[in-house]
Every structure is written in structure tokens, then in C-alpha cells.
Amino acid sequence: MAVTACCKVPLGVNLNQEFIETMTLNTRLDTIEQSRALRDALGEFATGVAVVTTHSSTGEPVGMTVNSFNSVSLEPPLILWSVAKEALGYSNFTAGKGFAVHILKGDQQHISNLFAGCGADKFGQVKWHADADGIPILGDCAALFRCRRVQCIAGGDHTIILGEVLHFNASGAEPLIFHRGRYRSLSGD
Ligand SMILES: Cc1cc2nc3c(=O)[nH]c(=O)nc-3n(C[C@H](O)[C@H](O)[C@H](O)COP(=O)(O)O)c2cc1C
Known about the structure:
Blueprint: E1 3-8, E2 21-25, H1 32-42, E3 47-48, E4 50-55, E5 61-66, E6 70-73, E7 78-84, H2 90-95, E8 98-103, H3 109-115, E9 128-130, E10 136-138, E11 143-155, E12 158-170, E13 177-179, E14 182-184
This protein binds flavin mononucleotide (FMN).
């Protein structure tokens, strides 16, 4: 049993205290309930949504939706995101020389759903072109970062990919937000 201390209160019970669920974990989640509770707590961190693209060893476009994107450093300009080991595109992202990160706009929920689909014909349904390195670039987004992969870092069932930003642009459009497992907008819908 990995849990060393566990004090759970049903959601919605008002105990006049700051936290409605507290759980102390060792190194593993033993039950679906613990896993759900950790996911829910992590989901309190609101993020943007991005589509990361690269190409396969045979030049095919590869892409997936992520919300693990974050900024790391300005000098040098570094960003990171993490890819699940079970993702179909895993080896393309961890072995490829570069990738592009497209920050999605508030009205691009359908693009997020498309690129979160497993094995779907993702690129047949969007406008895109290949850059000089063969990296797929989507036509429209809130911001774009073209990156050189500089490091892969072990992160449990994911691998953290560190990239150096080589080129970027930003449109000023409102971004798509992901919070508590749902898409949201900055205006609060
Ligand atoms: C909002 C959202 C955020 C996601 N973030 C990540 C992420 O950061 N890393 C990841 O590996 N998968 C993430 N996923 C899941 C992948 O998009 C999904 O597993 C996709 O099928 C992977 O594509 P592939 O298996 O064709 O490579 C996210 C999905 C959604 C909807």
C-alpha cells in the first residue's frame, strides 16, 4: 500500500476549510480512486492547448494535442512539453531533430480534438504546409514556436522534451484554455 496517510472528504461537503481532499502518496498510485484524485488535483492547473508537430523517418506528418507545454528559459530560449510513451508519435518526437508547437486559439477546440485522436487522418482535415525541414506547420494558431530538440528527459510514463526556440510568431488571438478536464475560454464559458 503506497498511501501513508489519507484523509478524504466527499466532494461538495463544506467544512469551512481550504482543501476538500488531502492525500499523501509514496511513489505509486495503488487504486483507480487515487489515480482519479491526483488527476483531478492536477487539473486545477489551467493551461493553454497546443498541437505539436514533426515528421516521421519517412517524411509523413505527425502531430498530437498537448497541454504540458511550458516556457523554461529566455537565455537561451527554451520550452518543454511531455509526450506519453504510449503515444503513436512517441518515437518521432523523441528521435526527430525538431518540432513545431502551435498554441491553439479559443475557437480551435475541433483542432484539439482532431489531434488528440489516436491514429486518425489528422492532416487530411486541416490546412498545413511543410517548412524547410519538413516539419508540418498549421495554417492558423494563436502562436507558433519552431524548435530544435535539445534534450529528452525521463519522466515516468512520459518523456520530457526540451526544445530551443529557433523562430516564433504570435497573432494576439485569444487562446483556448483547458481546466478540470474541460475546454474553457478566457471570458469564463
Ligand atoms: C487537452 C489535451 C491535452 C493533452 N496533453 C497531452 C500531453 O501533454 N502529452 C501527451 O502525451 N498527451 C496529451 N494528450 C493526449 C494526446 O493528444 C493523445 O493521446 C493523442 O492521441 C496522441 O496522438 P498519437 O497517439 O497519434 O501520437 C492531451 C489530450 C488533450 C485533449
